[in-house]
Structures are given as C-alpha cells and as structure tokens.
Amino acid sequence: MKRTIAIVAGGDTSEFHVSLRSAQGIYSFIDKEKYRQYIVEMQGLRWEVQLSDGTKAAVDRNDFSFMQGGQKNRFDFAYITIHGTPGEDGRLQGYFDMLKIPYSCSGVLAAAITYNKFACNQYLKAFGIRVAESLLLRCGQSVSDEDVLRNIGLPCFIKPSLGGSSFGVTKVKTKEQIQPAINKAFEEADEVLVEAFMEGTELTCGCYKTKEKSVVFPPTEVVTHNEFFDYDAKYNGQVDEITPARISEELTHRIQKLTSAIYDILGCSGIIRVDYIVTEGEKINLLEVNTTPGMTATSFIPQQVRAAGLDIKNIMTDIIENQF
Questions:
Q1: Sign of torsion, CA 284 211 110 23?
Q2: Considering only CA atoms, which of 171, 165, 167, 139 is closest in space to residue 152?
Q3: Per-residue pLDDT of the chain (324 residues; tens, 9 = 90+)
Q4: Which of 76, 68, 62, 83 is nearest to 30 (CA)?
Q5: 260 Cβ partners below 8 Å, 6+ apart?
Q6: Helix, strand or coil for residue 289?
Q7: Cα(109)–Cα(302) distance, integer angstroms
Q8: Residue 303 DSSP class
Q9: CA distance 271 to 143
C-alpha cells in the first residue's frame, strides 16, 4: 500500500507564499507511483488539506488527520517546506515527534539553532568556522549609531535574525540609514542582527544524508544584479545563478567538505543548504544554514541536483524512506 505524504506549507511569516511555491515543487518531485500526497496549508490555527477536487478539508490537530468521504485519513510522513515559523524553527518538528509521525528535515534542536542566524553562526564559530562580525538586538533593545560604526563598520547588513527570503534586510551605507534599517528589521522579527559586510563571491551548497549515503551537491555561484541577494534577486530573476560555480576544483572540494561538516556538527536531517561568502585569499565565510531550503523547480537545490546528474525524484524517495 502507498504511504500517504503530507507536504506541509504556509506558515506565519512573510514567506507564506514562497512556501506554497516550494510545496508545488515538491509535489511535482515526489514519485506518484510510490506515494499518495496532499498539500497541507497552515496559517495560524487554520490547517487545511488541499483535496484533488479543489476543495479543502480541516486537519484534526489532535492526530494530524483529516476526513474525506466519511473516512478518517492519517499521514505516514510529513515533508515540511514551511520557510519560517512554525516549520523552520523546530515547533512543528516537536509536534510531529509527539505524534510519532516521521518528517523530512532536521529535528527540534537543529531547526531551532539554524533558524536563529546569530545563535547558529556563533555556535559554529566555536568549531573554527569563519563568520562575519555581528551584534544582536532583542525587542526593546537599542544600539547607537556610534556603536555600530565602531564595532561593525559601514557598509553593513541589518536584518531579522529570524526568517528568510531577505524580508526586512537592508544594506546600510550611511550613518543615517542605521536606525530606519533596525526599525524595518524589527517589523519582521523580535531579534535583529547587525552584521559586517564582506566583499567576495557568494556561493551556496546543498547536502543530504541517509543511513546509506552522504551526498553533497555542486555549489552554485550567486551573482546578483542588485545591491545584494534580495527578494527581487531571489524570486524575480534579478540574479545569475551559475551551477556548478566558476571556482577551482580545490575550492569546490573545500566548500563541499565544510558543508558536510556543518551538517554533522548541527545533527541535521534531510536536505540542507549552506550559504557562504568567499573573500580575498579564498577564505570561506559562513552566511547562514537553511534546513528547509526553497524547492521550486528553479530553486538552488533542484539546480544542483541536475548539475550533479541526479534525479530529484530518487532523492525525495531517499529522504522519505530513510525515516522508516
């Protein structure tokens, strides 16, 4: 009998619609000969299953089931593709752990750490991984322009420490932009990161592991047409994404080795993607770790899978079957 898969999308942040696009990508990637799949859309307390006839059914949060034709349907597996809370920060993982429903991605601790950019980078810094100089502001805290100039310098990035898709991010070039950028970032999250700018080549590299194999994909080089890799660059085509990246074989190997090491240090599961800046002298600097990366047909991971000569349908099967 086919396993029943929930592709869990939506969430409670500005990335809601990005998540729904990833869900459509995953729906197209999963082997329909092996699995029955449904997209489960979450927003606040609204949890609904999209049915094949175009209608929706409410999810019973007591056991993550739904009714169809008078029959209760239960899910065997959840593929979490929420970018933001509650799917990227560990909350949903804890819920599924309690219900004994296996899922696609990292567990509670790894998800919680990686969702907080400052906490993750400072944790990995202790393992000798290079990160930008930064400072953290929590809701109600403030920092003077002079402290930013003295400790971080200009230009710098001011962004939410929680979240993604470049919502609330500002590249700050002048003293006058600092406080408005902090206010903008606080509109997206309760924690704000002030991070030093690093000049270099932006790269991103995906990886997944199962009980039988460890697979690290070819890195992608990210060449934005804008000031930085912002929302328009990510989703409106204002970027060149070159896979495999135009870097040496030696640097490629170092990026892949570091990505695999970060996966293990954090205790990740499923597919992750790690973003880097390579600065002068081929110094590799960590930007952030994504444990629920974008999965539309044009996202980085599908690009890297194709460049590696792999079939994403088989990778989806690997990730699902690894949990049984």
A1: positive
A2: 171
A3: 899 999 999 999 888 998 999 999 999 999 999 999 999 999 999 999 999 888 999 999 999 999 998 999 999 999 999 998 999 999 999 999 999 999 999 999 999 999 988 999 999 999 999 999 999 999 889 999 999 999 999 999 998 887 654 678 899 999 999 999 999 999 888 889 999 999 999 999 999 999 999 999 999 999 977 564 444 444 455 678 999 999 999 999 999 999 999 999 999 999 999 999 999 999 999 999 999 999 988 899 999 999 999 999 999 999 999 999
A4: 76
A5: 207, 214, 216
A6: strand
A7: 26
A8: H
A9: 37
149 Cβ contact partners less than 8 Å away, ≥ 6 residues apart: 175
Distance CA 236, CA 308 (A): 25
Whole-number Cα distances in Å, 11 to 16, 88, 96, 265: 6, 9, 15, 27
Checking DSSP bridges between strand 156-160 and strand 170-172, what pairing results, if any? antiparallel
Q: Are the beta carbons of 306 and 298 closer than 8 angstroms? A: no
How far is Cα 107 from Cα 270, in angstroms, rounded to an integer? 10
DSSP annotation of 175 reads: G
